[in-house]
Structure formats: C-alpha cells, structure tokens
Design goal:
It is a single chain. The longest helix is centred in the first third of the chain and has 15 residues. Strand 3, helix 3 and strand 4 form a beta-alpha-beta unit. This protein is α/β, with parallel strands linked by helices and 398 residues long. The chain has a six-stranded parallel β-sheet with strand order 3-4-2-1-5-6, with helices on both faces. The chain is 34% helix and 15% strand. The chain binds adenosine-5'-diphosphate and magnesium ion. Magnesium ion (MG) binds next to helix 11. Magnesium ion binds next to helix 11.
C-alpha cells in the first residue's frame, strides 16, 4: 500500500512544520556525542529546502518534564544543522507563542527555523489540544519524520494532525516503515531473528509475532537465561525474569507448530560479577555454577549462530548478545555484528533495531555495513510486535 510521503506534496513557498527526532545524547558541556538521528533527518530537510519550502523543525530532547532546563536546549542542534546543511538555520527560544509565530511568518523560501524543546511544555506529552493547535498555527503543512517518537501520541506527533489537513510522512519514517513493516512482513527466506538484550518482557511479544514468518530464532544476551531456566537448567546468578518462565516454555513449545527453530546458547561466558576486573570463564550452558552469571555467548554458540546467519537471506537483530559495553564480554556481540555485515555484503537484507544494538554497531564501526539500522528503540519494538502506532496511522493515511 502506497503511503503519502513528502514526494506527494507541493511545498514551494509553504511553511512546512516537520516533527523530527533530535533526541540526541549530549555530554555535560552540551556537546553532541552522537548525531546519528540528526543525520538521519537530513534527506527530508534537504528535499523540502530544494523544493523551496520554509522549513520549521520541532523535536523533544530528554525529559525536562514541562520545565525550561538550559541543559536540554536544542540550541546545539541548530549549530550542528547549520554545518550539515550549509544553510541558514534560525533558532527560536520557544516552540509556541507570538514571537515564534512572527519568526515562522518571516521565513524565506529555503530557510530553516528550529524550535526549542517541545517538552519544555507539559502540554506536549499530555497531547493537549490547545497546545497542538498553537503548534499548528505555525504552518501550512505538517510532516512527521520522527520515527523514534512514533510510539507516543503526543501533541506534536498526534494532536496536531487534527489541525493541519495537509500532511505526509518524511523519508526517514517512510524508510523505517519500508524495512520494519513492508519488508519484514514479507521477507526473503530463510529469515532469521537474533534476539538478545537485557529483558525478556517487551521482546517476548516480538517472538510470538515472528512465528509464521521466521525460520530461525537465535537467542542470546540476558534474555537467554529465562529460556534456559524454562528448560530446567540452573543459571546461577544470571539475569532471570521469574514471571516469564512459563511464557518462555510456551514459546519453546509453540515454535514447533510454526516450523521455527529456536536456538539457545550451548556455551556461555560466566563471571562472579559484572566488572572490568574479573576473569571470564567458559562453561556449557547446562553447567553454570551457582555463584556465576552469564555475560556473553561462548565460541561454540557464536559459531553455530554465525552458520545460520550465513545461510539466511533476511536477518533481524534486536538486542546485544552479551554485556558488550565491557570489552571482555563483547566478543559474541561483535562476532555476530560482523557476520551481519558479511552477509549484507553478499546480498542479504539485514535490519537492526534497538538503541543498544545500534550503539553496538557504532562501537564496532559497522553502521554503514548493514541494510538498515532503526532510529527507534521502543518504536521499532512496538511496530515489530504488531501494535498500532497512532502517529504513524495519522500521517500515512491517504
Ligand atoms: P536494545 O536497546 O538493543 O533493544 P536492550 O536494551 O534490551 O537492547 O539490552 C541492552 C543491554 O543488555 C545492554 O546494556 C547489555 O549490557 C545488556 N545485556 C546483554 N547481555 C546481558 C547479560 N547476559 N546479562 C546482563 N545484561 C546483558
Ligand atoms: Mg536498550
């Protein structure tokens, strides 16, 4: 189904209000430490500028909880945008009000105005209709390109759609939907999902949704231990979600009905505690000592998982396979990440979702070596779980 995108709009001379996701990490001196999300929004901004639009950008940053917090100003983003776009970028010290309105109205074609942090107003998260109406007053056309925020129905992502009839999805949102929805709903087979990370809850819903589509599920990371426990193994001090054991067991049983093979680690790196200074040991997964916790998949597991990825045409990866932040426990995650890059090179489609998984790809220098890295953690999970994301429904409806 074709969706409405900015390609369907006539924007010349129009004030186009674009909801972007500039929720980027800043250090203590307000320096941007990673501008992945800014760069991801550039294709949409450039397209609108080239077509002669007056581009007004709005975003949230962090959790100011309705208060004006200087450390959470979007000002540094305006500076960074200027460099990327090589263009004039004005900055408004608020996102609504008469001054902002005047600024928006005085913009020339091909100029950019970035509004201050939307969440300095509590009304944003409350999806307050009056606040949404005030935002809407700034523009003729509304574009949503904030995939990372699309699981939140806030004033700038949902309410505003009531007040601006001309609207469309930006390129980033469209690209995310193309891979996470269109492609993964109907993937080239064999299709393998690699699932890891810290928690079972939030991801277990994905597993059930993948049944019927996916041929292999490779489980690693913290979530593996709830599954091993469900199989009756002792897991020592490893991460466990007690209340998800039954569900894990159910999933292991159900997989057979769907011709899906679920793989669990056969060997594991264990330590007495998570720290830089401990000496890692290798054990079989049915032999985890009571005073140890699992922090990475072992070499045999890595080899088995790599072999399956090697013969896959589609791979979805969500969640690191170990505590990759500590170099001694990052080998499993790095090996799998490199395998993903390798099969991408050979023509497989590889999609990475989840904030920490994206961070791992960056750490290993592999950002450009996979087909698609999602800019949304929570949003990609909810989309993959088959949930309705209201902002996406509102913006893509023809
Ligand atoms: P994503 O953001 O990619 O969805 P999660 O947020 O679910 O991933 O999980 C990421 C975290 O999981 C990482 O910080 C990593 O250290 C942690 N993790 C991975 N394996 C383990 C493990 N065996 N024990 C504890 N934490 C783990
Ligand atoms: Mg995370």
């Amino acid at each position: 189904m074709a969706r409405l995108t900015i390609d369907d709009l006539k924007v010349e001379g129009k004030r186009v209000l674009v909801r972007v996701d500039f929720n980027i990490p800043l250090d203590e001196n307000q320096n941007i430490t990673d501008d992945f999300r800014i760069r991801a929004a550039l294709p949409t901004i450039r397209k609108l500028l080239n077509d002669g639009a007056k581009v007004i950008l709005m975003s949230h940053l962090g959790r100011p909880k309705g208060k004006k917090i200087a450390e959470l100003s979007l000002k540094p983003v305006a500076e960074r945008l200027k460099k990327h776009l090589n263009n004039r970028v004005f900055f408004a010290t608020d996102c609504v009000g008469i001054e902002v309105k005047n600024l928006a109205n005085s913009l020339q074609n091909g100029e950019v105005l970035l509004l201050e942090n939307l969440r300095f107003h509590a009304e944003e998260r409350k999806n307050d209709p009056d606040f949404a109406a005030k935002l809407a007053e700034l523009a003729d056309i509304y574009v949503n390109d904030a995939f990372g925020t699309s699981h939140r129905a806030h004033a700038s992502t949902a309410g505003i759609a009531e007040y601006i009839s001309q609207r469309a999805a930006g390129y980033l949102l469209e690209k995310e939907l193309h891979y996470l929805k269109d492609y993964l709903d109907n993937p080239e087979k064999p299709y393998t999902a690699v699932l890891g990370g810290a928690k079972v809850s939030g991801k277990i819903e994905i597993i059930e949704k993948l049944f019927g589509k996916v041929q292999n599920i490779l489980i690693g990371g913290g979530m593996a231990y709830t599954f091993l426990k469900a199989k009756g193994y002792e897991i020592g001090k490893s991460l466990l979600e007690e209340d998800k054991i039954d569900l894990a067991l159910n999933i292991l049983k159900k997989a057979k009905e769907y011709d899906c093979t679920i793989y669990l680690p056969t060997d594991i790196i264990v330590v007495p505690e998570i720290s830089d200074h401990v000496v890692p040991e290798l054990v079989l997964s049915d032999n985890i000592p009571p005073d140890r916790m699992g922090v990475d998949i072992g070499p045999e597991t890595t080899m088995i998982y790599s072999g399956i990825i090697d013969s896959s045409e589609t791979v979805l990866w969500n969640g690191p396979l170990g505590v990759f932040e500590i170099v001694q426990f990052s080998i499993g995650t790095e090996s799998i990440a490199r395998k993903l890059a390798e099969v991408t090179e050979k023509g497989a489609v590889t999609v990475v979702g989840g904030g920490d998984s994206a961070a791992a790809m960056k750490k290993f220098g592999l950002m450009s070596k996979v087909t698609h890295i999602s800019t949304g953690g929570g949003a990609s999970l909810e989309l993959l779980s088959g949930m309705e994301l209201i902002p996406i429904t509102l913006i893509t409806r023809k």
